[in-house]
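Fold this complex.
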Amino acid sequence: MLLTSVIIVLREILEAALLIATLLAATRLSNIGYAWLRVSISSGIVGALVFAWQLRALSNLYNGVGYELINAALQVLIYGVIIVLIALLFRLYFRVTTNNTPLAFFMGFALCLSIIREGSEILIFFSGFLQSTESLSSGILGSIIGASVGFSFGALFYFLLSALKQSVALVVTLSLLILVGAGMCSQASQLLMQADFLPSQRPLWNTSSLISESSIPGQLLYALIGYEATPSLLQVSIYTGSIFISLIAAVVSYKVYSRMRNKEESNNV
Amino acid sequence: MVEINIKQHLFEPSEITIPANTKIKLRIHNLDATPEEFESWELNREKVIMGNSTGTLFIGPLPPGIYPFFGEFNPKTAQGKVIVE
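Structure:
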């Protein structure tokens, strides 16, 4: 039970911790403060509790594939929020406005959705071992170890991002958000295949002998860029397509906001 | 359609054989009181099934081979494989 709970909690915490680290790095770029973090984490935990509590009923929706549909919807929603964040980060970078409330709101929203997803799985796992007294202490100990390792990776990642120069940090943060978003879309497509809403296909390639998905590097890459050892053609297309859409959003917002900035500067002269 | 039970953190049957290049509906009945997560890296499948409930998922079409799966919440005991022929 010790090792099982370390692995489960680590896997779930890792994804959320890396997203928190990326968003916190963006917070440093923007001086929006940390109030959004408190609100987002607490509402995420409440959301995870409700989701875990209602999972039995939700799973039975749509002939028993409600679990897949709701998780896929959450992931696509996170991707949508990430696109908004990309635009807002450019708006901030070009100092088009001093109002950072939208940025704080959408950062909080992305994190809240991620906590609902990862947190609910941890809670469901807890609900299982809390029922047996023999595995209780090792389960709790394992969860503490798993959570500590997960958050340590997040902290390390945050300090790496913080050490970068501001302009470099913006590019790295944007790239990470784009890759995390693509990973969300790829995971969502896999869930829709599992639910038979999208056609399953043969894997295009198999890199599991190179980097196994169950290994620590595999898990880190999965959390960061949505690494998949045996993706199908459809999944790869959705992954690259979502990167392409994010890049278009980045280029358009770069152009729009830099033009607005230039106009404002020429008006001031 | 193939049915699998989870009983005392074990899959029964723990081995199922399905034809190659065919889509199969898998119904997993969790007869334990505790939740389980059906997980397979090889099949790219992952699904939480609450205690005393049934989960449905689709696998395939797959090329011939052996695809292990396990219960993520009880990985020591809950293990099985899908044999594709």
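Chain A has one domain: 2-268.
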